[in-house]
From TrEMBL:
PROSITE patterns: PROKAR_LIPOPROTEIN. GO terms for cellular component: endosome; membrane. It is a multi-pass membrane protein. This is Leptin receptor gene-related protein. It is found in: Membrane. Keywords: Membrane, Transmembrane, Transmembrane helix. The keyword Phosphoprotein does not apply. One of its GO terms (biological process) is late endosome to vacuole transport via multivesicular body sorting pathway. It comes from Leptosia nina.
Length: 132
């Protein structure tokens, strides 16, 4: 069981590294040379915070469809949509090139799937890591 969990964590770390590599390439390649797309990393940090706060507060109240959890999911989706909209708006305003936009969007997809996988693994009750 521990080998299976360890493999999943290593896979998630690898996927997160690939996603961040796409975002860094969108900023650092010689034809792009602008670091504006790197601001999506702030969205990566902010995205899970509302849901984690709502889970912490709704555990004592009981019920999975509490208004607090619904508001947290709404805020999380707003952050997620904003992280996809930022590179598109920057590309349409000719601040960044479209290639940088595409690399950032690819990085967004990979990083958000990694975050989803992380919370799916840590939400399992039979895992040794569920105590975190």
């Amino acid at each position: 069981m521990k080998n299976k969990i360890s493999f999943r964590l290593v896979s998630l770390a690898f996927a997160g590294s690939i996603g961040m590599t796409f975002v860094i390439l969108a900023c650092a390649l010689p034809q792009y040379k602008l670091w504006w797309p790197f601001f999506v990393v702030l969205f990566y940090i902010l995205c899970p915070i509302p849901t984690m706060i709502a889970r912490r507060s709704s555990d004592s109240a009981g019920g999975s469809n509490s208004p607090c959890m619904e508001a947290a999911i709404f805020i999380t989706m707003g952050i997620l949509v904003s992280s996809f909209a930022l590179p598109i708006v920057l590309a349409r305003a000719d601040v960044i090139l479209w290639g940088a936009c595409y690399l950032t969007l690819a990085g967004n997809i990979i990083v958000y799937l990694t975050i989803l996988g992380f919370f799916t693994i840590f939400d399992m009750d039979d895992s040794d890591y569920a105590m975190w």
